[in-house]
Amino acid sequence: MSEQPRRPQKPGKPYRRPQKDPVRILAFEALRAVDERDAYANLVLPPLLRAARAKGGFDGRDAALATELVYGTLRRQGTYDAVISECVDRPLREVDPPVLDVLSLGVHQLLGTRIPTHAAVSASVELARVVLGDGRAKFVNAVLRKVAQHDLDGWIERVAPPYDDDPEDHLAVAHSHPRWVVSALWDSLGGGRAGIEELLVADNERPEVTLVARPGRSTTEELLREEAAVPGRWSPYAVRLAEGGEPGAIDAVRDGRAGVQDEGSQLVALALANAPIDGPDKAWLDGCAGPGGKAALLAALAAERGALLLASEKLPHRAGLVAKALNGNPGPYQVVVGDGTRPPWRAGSFDRVLMDVPCTGLGALRRRPEARWRRRPEDLEGFAPLQRALLATALESVRVGGIVGYATCSPHLAETRAVVDDLIKQHPNTELVDARPLLEGVTDLGDGPDVQLWPHLHGTDAMYLALIRRTG
Ligand SMILES: C[S@@+](CC[C@H](N)C(=O)[O-])C[C@H]1O[C@@H](n2cnc3c(N)ncnc32)[C@H](O)[C@@H]1O
């Protein structure tokens, strides 16, 4: 018996397994960790990259792309959220966070990299198929096709209010900073549109890696023998690493004779060390020393002068990092666990004191891509009493004629000038010292006497330094 002829089947699309792209899967995992566990990208990423490289089939270029995708997506999240909002039919808070992460990664590839449009969309859809499933991959595909209709400038024109209507909101959306941060940076920077825009642009760029050759332990000549090394801009101890230079591969860094340190931090330590004082110069204090970058430079400079550095830090594990950074210092030093608001040392016992106080870190946004979204204006209220108490300790710990450096890695006026002005008023036997001449060769330092460094003007973090002499 012959079989009844079957009705020809409609040829369905054969199922194709999603293509696993290790770079994008890793980038997605890092974003999830930052989102879900409040992790820091700069801490989450290195172990993920190490594990991927150890598994094999993941080279330096893959690592560079994964890093760019994670950092770029986080930095530009404000702009990208505004774009995605225009392309989905519900409020963003109703989009599942993992879906939003895949979309943001896709938007960054479309609007913030040179990856061709079709590759950016198809790689994102494949990623969605792997980590979200086929159904949601269709949604990702539809949204990203809408995003691909304009470039970044085109989108900014559509989603940011015109500058003339609302300058701060325009800058916030266009340059992906929270509005309150734009406002605070602008207050501190002063000036018109050009300066603040340059600053916001600089905050969105990847900072160079800068090394410090700790005096007496290494030299810039030694570091400059590295292939990727070029001289620093301002600090006589600084060497910059061009793209691709790996500090961990440098002997002097591995054995602590040199370290990774932004030039702004080097300048702060140098200015304090070089400020003129009369009388003895034997005892130096770093009252907020962890993790020890400035302490290591100060200790090396102190050693050249036969002075001792006491490095104090409240948190034991951070004091441990200080001890590691100072290990091998050619001169005398001591590391103690101590609360700077209840100092275990006698008043008036130091010739030089650094208080590099805990702060919002708004001056280091280049390095911590997610920090701008985590900080809240209320954080300032939390830091204010601690910053004042620590500066008060510094002013009491220094001897008459000695010098205090008050530093923050934030340019927010509430953490810089407001603290210094209050404390000078409360301690009549103190005076501000012009810090500018102590930053030799550094330009654009404003009216003084304190100093505010800026990423767009100096290529450094936005470090602040006030030098204060105790006069009685
Ligand atoms: C901005 S960081 C200092 C960075 C350090 N100077 C460097 O260059 O590596 C501030 C440090 O102060 C510490 N700290 C916070 N409260 C403190 C207190 N009451 N007394 C002493 N240190 C404190 C924090 O744990 C943190 O390590």
In the predicted model, the low-confidence regions spanning at least 5 consecutive residues are 1-5
CATH topology of the largest domain: Rossmann fold
Number of domains: 4
| Count of DSSP H/I helices | 20
Bound molecules: S-adenosylmethionine
Mean of residue pLDDT values = 95
Largest sheet: 8 strands, mixed
Give the second-level CATH assignment, the architecture of the largest domain.
3-Layer(aba) Sandwich
Overall CATH class of the largest domain: Alpha Beta
Helix fraction, binned, reads 40-55%
Q: How many individual β-strands?
A: 12
Q: Approximately what portion of the residues adopt beta-strand conformation?
A: 5-15%
Q: Which class of secondary structure composition applies to the elements?
A: alpha/beta
How far from one another are the termini? 116 Å
Radius of gyration (CA) equals 26 Å
* Superfamily (CATH H level) name of the largest domain: Vaccinia Virus protein VP39
Q: How would you sum up the global shape?
A: globular
Question: What is this structure's SSE topology?
Answer:
Elements (H helix, E strand, L loop, with lengths): L21 H15 L4 H15 L4 H16 L1 H11 L9 H16 L4 H15 L2 H14 L4 H8 L7 H8 L4 H11 L3 H11 L5 E5 L6 H5 L4 E3 L6 E4 L9 H4 L3 E3 L2 H12 L8 E4 L6 H13 L2 E6 L2 H11 L6 E5 L12 E7 L14 H4 L3 H20 E11 L8 H10 L3 E4 L17 E2 L2 H4 L5 E7 L2
Parallel strand pairs: 5-6, 5-8, 6-7, 8-9
Antiparallel strand pairs: 1-3, 1-4, 2-3, 9-12, 10-12, 11-12
GO biological process, one term: regulation of DNA-templated transcription
Organism: Streptomyces lacrimifluminis
Pfam family, one: Methyltr_RsmB-F
